[in-house]
Amino acid sequence: MSLSVRLLRSGRTIDDSFRADHDLEERPSEIGRLFVGQAPALSPTWFDFVSGFATGGLPRLVNQSCAAVLFLEVAPDDKRSAKRSVALTFGTGHHSLDPDAFERSFGLKVVLNAVARSNLRSMDIATLDATTFQKRIQASRDADLQGFGIDVDRDLLRLAAGSPRDNSFARSLAGKDALTLHTKTSPADVIEKCKTALKLYHSADYKRDFGFIDFVAPVRQQDILEQLDAAAFAELQELVKGNASDLHIALPDILSPEESVEVGYFGIGLKSGRKQAYTQIAIEDYVEELKAGQIADIADMAQLRLSHEVRVITDGEGDKKQKRKLYDCFVYELTHKGDAYVLFAGDWFVVDKAFHAAVESDFLKLVSRKPFVASTKAESERDFIAELDAHKNLLNLDQVKLSPASAPGANLEPCDFLSATKQFIHLKDGHSSAPISHLWNQGVVSAESFVRDEKFRIDLRKEAKKRQTKSKKAGFDAILPDGRSKPVPSEFAVVFGIMRHRYKKSGIVSIPFFSKVSLRAVADRIQLMGFPVEVHLVEKV
After folding, report:
1. CA–CA distance, 201 with 108 (Å, rounded to integer)
2. Which of 35, 97, 185, 340 is the most exposed place for a label (fewest CB within 10 A)?
C-alpha cells in the first residue's frame, strides 16, 4: 500500500496541527489518535452543462471524498532523543492539516538518505529568479543523479523519488514535506516504518551524494526568522507605495498543465466584496488589491501569514478547499547581518558562505569597470534604447529577428546593440518584472548561432547594413564576417548591460544573488566558445 507520513514539529501539539476549518472527528483508537471525515455529496461542476445534452435528464451524479489522519508517537532508537509525533494521512486527510505545524522537507531528507544517487526516478526542482521556473524530471527507470541534468549551483531541489537501498523499508519512496512509502505494511509494523523514517531524517548520509542541497539550507532560529519576515514586510510596504522591489510571488508547487483556473486574493486589509479573478498570480495584482484595501490593518508579516490566501475563484467566490497561503508564494532574497537569505515556498533559507563567496567572486570577474554607459535617467528599457540610439559607436539591432538554417521561424534576436568595438550588447531593465535570466539565455543562443550558422551570419550582416543606412551610420557591417567566413570569437565580446538602482543599504549597483548564480553556467558556456563575457552595470538615477 501507499503510506503518506508527516513529522510534527517540536513544540507543536496534535490539537493545533489542524486547519481551523477542518471537519474531521476524532474516533477511539487503540494506538495513537485517529481522525476521520466524510465530505458531503456534491454534484460535479459540469453536471448542469452535460445534463443539457441528455434527453430526459440525467440520474443524480455526485462527487464525495473521505479522509483520515492517524497520529502516532515514535520513540527514536537514541534514548536521549525525545519521542516525536508523526501523522499518517489517507484520502484527502492532508487538506485538513496546517502545513506550518509540520517539518518542512522531512520527506525529501528521508529520500536522500535512503536512496542511492544511482537509483533516482523523479525530481522536482525550482530555479529562483524574478520568475520562478519549476520542473519535474522523470526517468523511465532508476537512473543516476547526473542524468537528471540538475544545475547544483542554481536549482533548489524540492522533491525526490527513487528505490531505497533497503527494500524491506519500502519498494519505492517519494518525498517533499511528506514522505510517501510504497510498501507492504500492517498496523502491527507501521510504527517500525515510522521509526526507520525518523532515523533516516536525522542521518547525514545525504551529504555524500547530495551535499549540494546545503548550499541553500533552511533557517530554524526563531529570532532570525522574525527579523527576516520584518524585512520582507517592509519591502511589501515599499511596493504598495509605488517603489521598486525584487519581492515577488510564485506558486511553489508544479500545477497540472490541464488545469485552467482563476485565482483571487483574500485576507485582512485586502479589498472586500466580490473578488477580482486573475488568470495567474502576480505581485503586481496582489499589490493592487492591497492598495484598494486597508494595508494599515495588517500589523506585520505574522498577521499576513495567518490571514492572506490565494484561492481558486468559483462563481465569484473563493473556494476554501482550493487555497494556498500567500506567504508560501513569496520569493525574496536579502543580505542580513552578513549572510544571504532567500524566502521561498514558506521557508527562509540561508546561503552557504563559501558558496556565496565563490559566486560573488566569479561575478566580480565579469563586471566591467568601464561600462559603455555609466548611468541613465531612462525609466524603462525602451527609453534607454532610444537614448543609446544617439551614440555613433552603437548600432541599434533591437527587435531584429533572425533564424538559423537549422531552426526556421526561430526569430532570435542577435543583440540590442552592436558596438564599433565588436561587442554584442544585450540589455535588460533589471528592476522590471521579467527575469534577468532571460537576458543570459539570449546571450547564449545568439553567440552559438553566430559561431555555428552561416545563414545567421549572412542575415545578420544584411540587417546591419539596413540599420546603419537607416540611422545614417557606417562601418558596422564591415566588422561582421560574411556568411562564408568563420568568425573568430575572441575578436568579439558578449556584453550584458543591466539597468539597476543602487541598493538602499549597501549603496552599490549590483544584481540579485540568484541572478549571479544563473550567470555562472551561462558565462562558462559562452567563454568555452571563445567569447569574452562582460557585465556592464548601468545605474538608474
Report:
1. 9
2. 185
